[in-house]
Write a structure and sequence with these properties.
Layout lengths: L2 H12 L24 E6 L4 E5 L5 E2 L4 H13 L20 H5 L10 H15 L2 H13 L5 E2 L1 H9 L2 H12 L7 H13 E3 L1 H7 L1 H4 L13 H14 L5 H7 L4 E3 L4 E6 L3 E6 L10 H14 L5
Antiparallel strand pairs: 1-2, 1-8, 3-5, 4-5, 6-7, 7-8
The chain binds 6-diazenyl-5-OXO-L-norleucine (DON).
């Protein structure tokens, strides 16, 4: 497969969309990112990585981290997490509070902020240091030992974290957090602040395309667990745009307000696209367009 030619064609096609949308404003440290950035990378299951544009420029992974924290918790703790978080699409914005009350403090899925806070809480209980565990895991899976937290982003989010604090306190009132709210929030903000490039994320997500196998052939997850993460990414990974994402792209995907989206083509490759301009639902405008065009050109949607 001529990935280079394919990605260049995708980049040319989406050029008019680059810079469209709004860079995330509610985390002030993210608001200063150049909206005209665009990069895309493909990591084939055979280990080849190809990219175009800003594919080696690190950006804030934000909610993309939630796919990896779920993988770690499933790997270390099996299915127990599903007693505390559901796996249905929420149909609501990623930071919404409304469902939590009438669903008794059990978040709809592990990718909305409430659900990700529960997953981070469990990872904290399992490891004693959720965010460092995440950083080390991502360094190992991406093969990039230089990955780091962006302290300014973590601090900025913490300073403006009233919404996440409300979600966490609310769940704590239902007994759905084991660790102190401040501890859970701190580890969650740190995990979201990790900086990775399209290359790093496509490589790190390779186990999702390899049915749970790492690049070196060792097993991280069972094929069943990998299938499940991909399924939740497909149905919940882009929040209240998950239907539109399935319609346009047709792949398991996980977005972040840093403007990145990771998408998985099981058995074939993992993609990561980045462009910071977001639509109203917090997903990269050019990123969605790029993945839409990629699956249209290749016919590689899961549908
Ligand atoms: O908690 C937050 O609001 C951010 N750290 C992450 C949100 C996010 O990336 C949603 N994704 N599109």
């Amino acid at each position: 497969m001529d990935y280079q030619g394919l990605l260049e064609e995708v980049a040319t096609h989406v050029a008019p969309h680059i810079g469209q949308g709004e860079v995330a404003q509610y985390i002030p440290a993210l608001a200063s990112v150049d909206p005209r950035r665009f990069g895309i990378a493909v990591a084939d299951v055979d280990g080849t990585v190809t990219g175009v544009g800003d594919w080696e420029v690190p950006f804030s992974v934000q909610s993309i981290s939630k796919a990896f924290s779920l993988a770690l918790v499933l790997e270390q703790d099996g299915e127990r997490i599903w007693r505390r978080v559901g796996r249905e699409p929420s149909g609501n914005p990623f930071n919404s509070l409304v469902q939590l009350e009438y669903e008794n403090g059990i978040p709809r899925n592990p990718f909305i902020n409430a659900g990700a806070l529960v997953v981070t809480d469990r990872l904290q209980t399992l490891t004693g240091d959720a965010s460092t565990t995440m950083l080390e895991f991502l360094r190992a899976e991406s093969g990039n030992p230089d990955l780091a937290f962006d302290q300014a982003v973590a601090a900025s989010e913490s300073e403006h974290g009233d919404r996440n604090a409300a979600l966490a306190h609310f769940m704590a009132s239902y007994g759905n957090l084991d660790n102190p709210v401040t501890t859970v929030l701190e580890h969650y903000f740190w995990q979201c602040s990790i900086e990775m490039s399209c290359r790093d994320l496509a490589v790190a997500g390779g186990f999702l395309a390899r049915h749970g196998l790492r690049a070196d052939g060792s097993r991280l997850l069972s094929p069943r667990q990998a299938k499940r993460i991909n399924a939740v990414m497909l149905t919940c990974g882009t929040y209240d745009a998950a239907g539109d994402f399935a319609y346009r792209v047709g792949l398991p995907g996980k977005s972040g307000v840093g403007g990145g989206i990771v998408a998985v083509i099981p058995g074939r490759c993992t993609l990561c696209v980045w462009s910071p301009g977001l639509d109203a639902r917090g997903n990269s405008v050019a990123g969605m367009a790029a993945l839409d065009h990629f699956t249209t050109l290749t016919g590689w949607s899961v549908f």
